[in-house]
Design brief:
heterodimer, A: about 350 residues, alpha/beta, D-Maltodextrin-Binding Protein, domain 2, about 45% helix, globular, B: about 550 residues, mainly alpha, MetI-like fold, about 0% strand, disordered C terminus
Chain lengths: ~350, ~550
Amino acid sequence: MKTPRFLSSALGVMLLGLSIGYAQEVNLYSARKEALIKPLLDEFSNTTGIRVNLVTGKADALLKRLETEGANTPADLLITVDAGRLHRAKVAALLQPANSDLLQESVPAIYRDPDNHWFGLSLRARPIMYAIGKLDPSTLTSYDELADPRWKGKICVRSSGNIYNQSLVASMIVAIGEQRTEQWARALVENLARPPKGGDRDQIRAAAAGQCVIAIANTYYLARMATSKKDQREREAAMKIGIIWPDQNGRGAHINVSGAGVTKFAKHKDNALKLLEYLVSDKAQRYYADSNYEYPVKAGMEPSDTLKQWGKFKGDAINLSLLGKYNGAAVKLMDRAGWR
Amino acid sequence: MAAVSALLAMPILVVLSFVFQPAGDVWRHLLATVLTDYITNSLLLMVGVGVGTLLLGVGSAWLTTQYQFPGRDTLIWALLLPLSMPAYITAYTYTGMLDYASPLQYQLRAWFAWSYGDYWFPDIRSLPGAMAVLSFVLYPYVYLLSRAAFLEQSVSVTDASRLLGCTAWQSFRRVGLPMARPAIIAGLSLALMETLADYGTVQYFGVDTFTTGIFRTWFGLGDSAAAAQLSSVLLSFIFLLIVLERWSRKRARYHHVGIRSQPLNVQRLGGWRATAAICACALPLVLGFVLPTGQLLWWAYRTADQMIDAEFYLLIRNSITLAAGAAILAVMIALLIAYGKRLSPNKVVISAARVSGMGYAIPGTVIAVGVMLSLGWLDNSIDSWLRNQFDVSTGLFFSGTLFALVFAYMVRFLAVSLQTVESGLAKIKESMDDAARSLGYRPKEVLRRVHIPIMRGSLLTAGLIVFVDILKELPATLILRPFNFNTLAVRAFELASDERLADSAIPSIAIVLVGLLPVILLSRAIAHSRATTYVDHTNGNV
């Protein structure tokens, strides 16, 4: 029937695709959304002449794709938006060390893999947010205190399926042990204003609208709401929210990174390294800070003005690989605690 | 042909093969904590969506076939429009409209000086909310198939029932409904399979179902064996649905023997009855299409200048060519399998077709992983064989190409085309095959010159549904697509998952608009189907 003809023409197209090779290119699997990285990649191509081929997707799926493709994978560089997945990629032997003095200098040791399998590119903080006027910020100073019964029915947080919550809980397991973290999680669930649903912005909006007093969310979501050009209601909601930097006398606020690593079977390793170095350059770091309101990873780089108004803070300095290591334990713990 | 079925069954079998791996203590953990919730929520969701789609779908189908009222001709096709809405996008729009932080609730609070807890308002992001949203989006499957069945029903039977003293309601309940049951159940099973496979809506609404559980186990706990075992439990749900559906279809053979001798007597409604009928039929349309599209348009109006750029048209082109190509292929394969079964119904072919037909209810991500594993293995085997034999390396041949993506679409959506094509083929009497063969046609010619012309309507329906489904498909497209290749669904999802709902409105609207055309074609086909089947029938009897 007609199938063989279709197959042969499909094969023909693929062969054609294979034969058109670019002398200078680098293939990228990115869990960072296209809209948030394409401008950087275009800039990189313009300055270096290296073409960047991009597939975006969810980190877990991209990892699975790398894994099944094995030694023949076309991917040279993997970008994720959390350290846990990078660690998982390293453990699954999907990455290789990237040896570059520039990277070593630019990225502080706590934000990269000890064996140089991956490097942080930007920082995201997950502090406590509160509805201004409904809570005295001096009365709430740590994540631990969120378990206090006085916040019953006052806290909004998204579901435990979200990687940022999984990483936060993993960091607590590292800090105070699994048993105490589980007690904390149970008490937190008791304090929730509503069953977890929606994303981080939804928690912030709910706090602004009065459904809860406290929300746990990443700062860039609040910053994007505060600077929303089109939506006045978003800006108004963001105005009603203040930030508490937790555990400033202890371990510090929870920090995660978006980061990248060179794949184990990279065919364009040099180009991948160049791209990686470009992503920690001042120019790229400025882009992360000003366009997406993340904290630059590079020492000495200032965050955007929006973020500056929330002040400087002390970040949790644990080795971020541990977030990946304790991810499974964190998920199970949240299941047991009834954190949906 | 057996090879095609086997190939399409492969990804599902690959995933199932994990079942035999030991899953560690994850099962104990799941049993002790969340598994009961997963099962309860999934079952409740299916019941809710089942009831919802039946009420919306069968009700409107019956009213539009049996009665004439103002606006009916428009409603007949407009009722299909929600087919073009991806469920997760409808979920976003309803959240935007009804959530606590929505303008509506803001206004209410401002007017009545309420604050949180002072008043009751339905929570859209909940299990009932998910039931409602999925019903709004999925009822067209039930409407489509039950309307076709009502149209095919012999008028004399309905007339006879009225002459024998049945009221309109009794004639519907005792004659119309039972006779259309196989078609209704076929539509219902499509809707329920979509419900089981849904990830976007339930995840956004915070409802833990079997499907969200599979993801959590696979990726959060990193246990692929346990996740595959969960998938196989899901498959047994689906198997039950399929058995139910086949069983009811088998009985259908005895129903459709009557030959229609006169056009349907459509009863004209007036006064309050007409108003009631209009309201009843407009309700699903408003809930499933008008309101969500209105919200999308409002968002799109504010973001259009930023979101429409040169690349946007490329996205539209990619979406259309991909969906159209894959839909045509899906119809051809379905025809191949269905006809093969008709010619030589042997067990291998039938069971391979059945397994590959189960893909519809499996979450796209699970299928995508199955496809990745199958093709990755194939590619790497070819590569190492060539390396050993000829010392050349091909690299990856299929993985990461459009072929992989189209392959995944076939696995996922073959059920839809197969079901439609099979039921179309089943309506053609075997004696016609015999007649054609005795006139000297070979089987291929019989298919081309006899079957295909007769079942043109079924083929068109199959192709159009698959087209719209692929247009909306997200998880497999996201994982399997080649470098630098985006579609409208990918763009909409990326923006929405970045919590930029308003920005995602433009690509979402584009999906709806592109999907609209085939949906309108489809409804045209149904509207004319009465005339065409009538003609077919006469031809068939010449």
